[in-house]
Design goal:
The protein has 412 residues and is an alpha/beta fold. It has helices spanning 13-23, 56-59, 68-78, 93-104, 115-134, 155-159, 164-167, 185-191, 217-228, 280-283, 299-313, 316-333, 361-370, 393-408; strands spanning 35-39, 42-45, 50-53, 108-112, 142-146, 177-180, 196-201, 231-235, 259-262, 274-278, 340-345, 350-354, 373-374, 376-378, 382-385. The structure holds pyridoxal-5'-phosphate.
Length: 412
Amino acid sequence: MLAPPETGPALSTSEHLALVEAVTAHNYHPLPIVVAEAAGSWVTDVEGRRYLDCLAGYSALNFGHGHPVLLKAARRQLERATLTSRAFHNDQLGPFALGLADLAGMDQVLPMNTGAEAVETAIKLARRWGYDVKGVPDGAAEIVVAADNFHGRTTTIVSFSTDEVARRGYGPYTPGFVVVPYGDTAALRSAITPRTVAVLVEPVQGEAGVIVPPPGYLANVRAACTEADVLLVADEIQSGLGRTGSTFACELEGVVPDVYVLGKALGGGILPVSAVVSRRDVLRVFTPGSHGSTFGGNPLASAVGAAVVELLRSGEYQERARALGEHLTSLLELLVGSGLVGFRTRGLWAGVDIDPARMTGREACERLAARGVLAKDTHGSTIRLAPPLVVEREELDWAVAQLAAVLTEETA
Ligand SMILES: *Cc1c(COP(=O)(O)O)cnc(C)c1O
């Protein structure tokens, strides 16, 4: 193989930060770490420092960086065909969709690229189903969503966000959404009207801080949807594909939604791959030309997606998430009271609330990074921990030891 071309002298961390500050929009406030390489659960920065990745691309890297099976699938497909558009067929989409539908216990797949696009697809699907199948008067469809949701960044999706930072300044907002408190079945039931076409919900709210709803909530939502002839759309973009200890977080509650929305880990950490997965009697409302995507279902994405499905089929990653998650829970329990005020876990996924009197979540993440652990704060004083599912138990021990040290060390 040819060596990559020399790209000139390597930039230092501060030079990279200055460059990015100058030439990119400031819609993010990243930790001051410049990743150069990554493998498995570890990343290396441009200075050669190593960090345990306890964010894993918000669960896009459930299988770690550069999983050999996924790289092999991607490399093989890179040499064959990468993009066809849906104007023609490609030989990768069918097998990928078959595997994904089977994994989800559904009939059909609509492939997209990013998570937000898949959520948009589910919204269009629900509305069209509402008009064509349920008989809702045209233009009157309502979708019930939960407060503190995160479903993406498009104008329609931020229209029903309750996060002012994500929403402010982007009006006029798309109508047709009703927001109810998360975890409140009574509020959800009373929000459902004859015009309701769907309930769109995260089985665990990731961005909000790994918020786990009360036991029985999802089952009650399922029952309410069934009774009212409303589609239950589960946004499992972050909770799905192994993270929670099962393939889908809905399974933990014994719930089968009408529509799964998937993304993040579906692309194996290599490229964006998302999908809406549902039954044939729902997805049939789409007709040629009524929805689409230039890149959706492309052969490279399909090859990687199929390899992801194959990894999940063994159940190995779900089992790892379950066992490592139990271990993480027992480690975090020991920290409650010493700088940690509370936490929630679902599989290998934790929302850790630190004492705001001691430091902000941002400051805790900066201190963690200085100790070689990458994590991300959310909503002030919560840190989200979501290491790749390939992380070793001893690495988890070490990461939590760093967290313990950060929470108890002297603050300025
Ligand atoms: C990340 C995320 C999205 C949006 O995915 P993008 O690929 O960033 O567009 C939507 N829903 C949930 C639950 C997510 O975690």
